[in-house]
Write a sequence for this structure.
């Protein structure tokens, strides 16, 4: 696929086949992502690729924490609120996604099950965790976003789909301890990777995006 097609057809996948991703393919994806731009070429990204038994062990730890509603301490604070127009888009997104799955907003048990799937990496055979040094500032966070976008687009070009997961970062301290990383490292995002299960109901919904005229002002 060409670049435009890749951008237009990429979407978040929340149900994967258990087919392993070849290490050669993962290395190719990372090599492409490594070409991402960054402030003064600082390249702040530090990547942990977690697969196989290691991934299963990590999943058990964070799933247990989430199911017990353990205290959450993400390195990157979660938003505490949104401007009205952003809040409306988020609310509509959640409503439509639940509707696609046949789940009502007041069905707390079903919603909890869906939430906990985050900590199983949606069944994906690989989880990629993106870290940066804790001393870095917002410009490096911006750079990390560029890297994450290029990584998921590169994966898409190889038929490997993804889901960006903020929920996993709720247990940043426990994840760093499990991986043997310094507490000073900052966990920004988890990306589940795998080959999509196109028959799964979870993959029937696609987020609605704004049209350019809704977010663009021209000055001529």
């Amino acid at each position: 696929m060409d670049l435009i097609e890749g951008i237009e057809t990429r979407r978040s996948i929340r149900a994967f086949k258990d087919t392993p991703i070849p290490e050669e393919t993962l290395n190719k994806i990372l090599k492409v992502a490594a070409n991402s731009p960054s402030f003064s070429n600082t390249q702040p990204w530090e990547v942990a690729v977690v697969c196989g038994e290691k991934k299963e062990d990590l999943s058990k730890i964070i799933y247990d924490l989430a199911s017990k509603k353990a205290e959450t301490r993400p390195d990157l604070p979660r938003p505490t609120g949104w401007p009205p127009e952003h809040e409306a888009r988020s609310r509509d997104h959640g409503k439509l996604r639940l509707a696609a799955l046949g789940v009502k907003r007041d069905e707390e048990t079903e919603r909890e099950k869906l939430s906990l799937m985050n900590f199983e990496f949606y069944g994906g055979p690989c989880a990629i965790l993106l870290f940066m040094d804790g001393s870095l500032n917002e410009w490096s966070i911006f750079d990390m976003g560029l890297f994450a976008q290029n990584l998921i687009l590169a994966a898409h070009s190889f038929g490997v789909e993804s889901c960006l997961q903020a929920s996993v970062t709720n247990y940043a301290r426990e994840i760093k301890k499990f991986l043997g990383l310094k507490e000073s490292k900052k966990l920004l995002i988890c990306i589940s990777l795998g080959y999509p299960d196109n028959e799964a109901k979870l993959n029937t919904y696609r987020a609605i995006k704004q049209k350019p005229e809704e977010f663009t002002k021209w000055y001529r």
Q: What stands out?
A: The radius of gyration is 18 Å. The chain has one domain: 3-77+119-206. The domain at 3-77+119-206 is CATH 3.40.109.10 (NADH Oxidase). The helical segments are 3-9, 23-33, 52-67, 84-100, 108-116, 138-157, 172-179, 212-215.
